[in-house]
Amino acid sequence: MSPESSKRFRVSAYNFGFLDEGSKREIRRSTLKAVAIPGYQVPFASRELPIGKGWGTGGMQLSLSLAGSRDTIKVIDQGHDDSVNAVSIRHLIQSCTQVEMTRDSQAASLIQSRHRIPEIPLRKDQILILQVPQPDPLKKVESHEKKVKQLHADKDYKGMWLHLYEDISQWGDISISADYPSTAHERYLFAPSPLPRWDVPKLNHSEALCLLGAGREKKIYAIPPHTQVTPLAFDDVPFTTENFGKASCKNCGADNVYLDEFIDDETGQKTYSCSDTGYCHQRMAERRIQ
Amino acid sequence: MSARIECHHVTKTFELHQKETRTLRGCEDISFTVNPGEFAGITGKSGAGKSTILKTLYRTYLPTSGHMYYRSNSTGTIDLAQASEQEILYLRKNEIGYVSQFLKIMPRVTALETVMESLLEMGYSPGEARSEGSAMLYQFDLPEYLWDTYPDTFSGGEKLKLNLAKAMVKQPALLLLDEPTASLDEHSKAYVKHMIHQLKEAGTTMIGIFHDLTFMDTVVDKKYHMKEGKLTGTEEALELNRND
Amino acid sequence: MFDTIQHEPVLSVQHLSKRFGPGCSSCDEQKLPSNICAACGTIWACKDMTFDLFQGEILGIVGESGSGKSTLMRCLHFEQEATRGAVYMRDYDQRSTDTLTISRQEKQYIKDHVLGLVYQNPWEGLRMDFSSGGNIAEKLIAADYRHVRTIDQRAEELLEKVDIPIERMSECPRYFSGGMQQRVQISKALANQPPLLFLDEVTTGLDLSVQAKVLDLIRMLQREFHVSILIVSHDLSVIRMLADRTMVLKDGDIIETGLTDQILEDPQHPYTQLLVQSLI
Hints:
By secondary structure, chain B is of the alpha/beta class. Chain B is built from 8 helices and 10 strands. Chain C has a 6-stranded mixed β-sheet, with helices on both faces. In chain C, strands 2-1-4 form a 3-stranded antiparallel β-sheet, covered by helices on one side.
């Protein structure tokens, strides 16, 4: 064996999807339970992966346990298909499953994402898998795990409401920009990954199943299709999404999408582009055809 | 029952549990009747059990035996000896007043507030309570600059006036008076007398203890004398007052 | 206006007992001479307590430490689980359901909507690192207030009522004096105007002048909101000033109940007589 080949990842040494079948089954069982109780965090035995916990291992385990040979998978990191993380995760999934990978959200059957939901609404034959760093919104207001569980059980969310109220008192508005606390079917309060506010309404009555996995925190939860997702909001301070004014994407011209802002260091000029690069590329390709 | 209050063989004894249990006599086998608008005076040496009767009627003391039938304006006849605490609290708020020789009022409540409170607990609005309460204090000749001060600095006479005002402002159906003129000057006594006559006309029944027998004779309709816990004699004083 | 005699209790406690320890065959709580079972060492903090609280009344509960006052209150506030007995509330299911048997969520509902509890120690009742306004908001939010401006206005109103300057509304109670903390705690407990208020030794440990202010406040609020109050105190002068009726506790037993002036002037039980004699 040459020194070079020993460093290589030898696919044949691993099971399909990297994890052994027993592990995948356990994860799928937890996933089923999560689907059965929308928004409820189901504990699971988070496995070791060749990437560090906290780098998307929750999402990875969901993807790897669900992937079958006929799936087509898309991996997104903050909207990008080509950031270092997205590329590494895509590479790992592909090398241990050999499934087809895509950048086109509409062509994917499984979409693993960090921080974003694709702009084009998902269909019922698609599954969205979100990587979650902190699955419990109540951790912001109560640090003891045991008490947090009790609060969920009692549906006692006044601590969170109070947090929002204090935010409004202090800043005149709710300052939470991502991971906006929401309830699933008016029961469990859940953290919608660190999605921007823009994407939270997409979860409401979504056609697609959304699974959320936190590898470090060892939790899986789900927003099944057609779940009512309600962001916490006061009657006189309603929930709002980001407002980009009249800005539009400098590349594809889209204006009703979530935009990333760029500031030119020299001129100080602000420019915007689509956060969802797959969507942006698709629009540009369509234009060229026209 | 046409009488306002009818006592049948009321006895009150106190059991004191100290090193050994001792039984003290309060009053014994007391029976009397007082009609609406009537004033009964009780005389006797101190320790004869006069105050015991009043406190037993007011239920500050729990009667040991006997019945105290009271004809309430709103609930009909009720035996005060058997009445529930809720009933007693209701009657105290609305129908039965008690004025003691000692002023028992709340600390840090002004004179006017003290009188107002009597009306507020009956359900008067704050506005009504204020105007009625002021009128009462005015009638009792309590200097206006005292209305908004705390009564603990008042003289004995001023305190007593306030106490009377607090009880009389309710126009109670039954008013128990324990030495209501003890430290009053002649002028105030005259006013108390005037008030008593007014209440009597309005139908208030009163039972009072007096040391000042001259004053008593000008207001009461009948007199009872007490000795060692027992009523020893009755004297209808109607004749006396008719000539007034 | 309560121009009627109150026959319907707001709170009805029946045969409530609370045991700390395993219990044994020989400790049938009714027959214990004290509140500790000699055979198994089990402590019976509350023994077969039965009483009613009526609309608009203040019921005082007196007794020395260890008599079961605080345990009783904590059982009624669901912080401790009663071993036996039943508790009915007018404002929950019209007294048709024993509140000790309902789910935790339902108990939480009662705590948020029907009850207010003021603890002896403000640290138990307040979030010390949230603003005073926020503390009041918490109780309002718990009682389903979802309108920020309404909450703000109510908090301002309440703090004004308890003499906390508006400019200190955004400060944390951590930096307040004990008396001020207690006033914030009381206004928080009353924020949503619950029909039932439990006060647990609320003036204990305060300076005399501050104590007086807190007592005045309770009296004022009681008259204004017509709330029914259960007040626990080992201090008879507090009870004398506030309570319409008084219940005397000893070793987990209710040994005497009566009109407060009757309890003070004509106490029946030897222990109550001793207690009253110690007052003067």
